[in-house]
Amino acid sequence: MRETSQPMVDKVAIIGAGPGGLATAIALRKQGIDAHVYEKAREFRPVGAGVSLKPNGLRCIDAIKPGLVNKLRRLGFQVQRTTLKTSTGETVWTTKTPINSKDKELTFAIWWWHLQRILASELPSEVIHLNHRCVSFEQNEKTVTTQFENGKTVEVDLLIGADGINSRVREILIGDRQPTYSGSMCWRAIVDYRDELLLPDEGLIIRGEKTAMILYPLGEGKMNWSAGKLFPESFVCPSAAEVKFRVLKEFSNWMKPILQMIEETDAESILEAPICKRLPLQQWSYGRVTLLGDAVHGMSPGGGQGANTTFEDAYELAECLYNFPDLKTALANYDKRRLQRTVVIQNYSEKMEKLAYKSIQEQNKQSEQNFAEFERWLFDYDPKSESRLKPWKEKVVI
Ligand SMILES: Cc1cc2nc3c(=O)[nH]c(=O)nc-3n(C[C@H](O)[C@H](O)[C@H](O)COP(=O)(O)OP(=O)(O)OC[C@H]3O[C@@H](n4cnc5c(N)ncnc54)[C@H](O)[C@@H]3O)c2cc1C
Fold first, then answer.
1. Which atom of ligand 1 is nearest to 132's Cα?
2. What one-character-per-residue DSSP string does 292-359 give?
3. What is the pTM assigned to this prediction?
């Protein structure tokens, strides 16, 4: 424990105004640290699709800023039943409330843009610097100097790379380049709710040949669709019109209402992305620079844990900066707390992603039972309890 209530670092630069960067800034400013967020986008726009927020992530948000979860919940949506269908429309099963009742209040989906907007609104506007793309940084024993594409520089005590899966900070810090392609492409969009496809409180999973889709309501008359297909190589279309044409082609043998929904989706709103992950690192922090979120442990969306583990990082980093006597020890402990857990969750996410493309019979065989114990460990993560730092029982080799 530090013997003074003075923060261990005065000035912090956080690269990236995604969920991770914004949550970290909120947590650090609460400690009196002058944390600023630098974002490459010129403005916050209504982008992204639905993001699942789960008990482990939401408990960390609540610990960072009590009351914030309620603000998010007001704009989020919780499904009450889940249905599995074949691509031609036959129902395989329907379950009511797939969520453990203990976690009921702590699971909902929200539009990525709403999440970003609400987190940003918790910060003074002058500490979020848009149109600041980080291009490089240099550090010495006393300071880190960060350069931006617009010619500006900042000098701080600590630099945090929360700049997503294609992190520039990681590239400079570690020296590795592109994220690793996981073998599937994904397309997502937010559209007006369509009652011919799903009930107002229903999540729908649809399985086809090497293809999969998830649909769920997002509230305010909107719904999210997210489609995926296995591809040996990743390929991104050059224009919005070509993206839409491609999705229609890949799903052409699917039931009519789905094709109609894709047909009526504004091409510009369809996000196309290769599913990628980041290979685990032995160490996240070097000197006065550290990483967080997708920048360090970008993972397949199958486990719905990208944003949730990022909130865990934000909480633990702030906690370590508050509780340990010096920066070196604080960052070493941050790495220690996060390394094993995030690798295990990356592996789980990859398994869940692969499972989505297995036949329905195979999926039923690898029943939920297999994951029940693991998911308790995953979702029970609670900042109020020391037991959150207990590693998963299986050894992980990085
Ligand atoms: C635009 C966008 C939309 C997304 N939509 C969804 C979604 O709909 N559903 C879902 O499940 N997940 C979505 N994700 C991913 C999801 O939010 C992340 O997995 C997770 O929340 C981890 O958050 P993060 O803060 O680590 O990274 P991210 O959410 O990726 O945020 C990183 C931020 O850093 C900024 N940035 C990148 N490079 C630089 C640089 N050099 N200099 C300055 N800023 C930089 C990016 O613009 C971004 O705002 C989206 C990510 C982005 C960027």
1. 43
2. -THHHH---GGGS-HHHHHHHHHHHHHHHHHHSSSHHHHHHHHHHHHHHHHHHHHHHHHHHHHHTTS-
3. 0.95
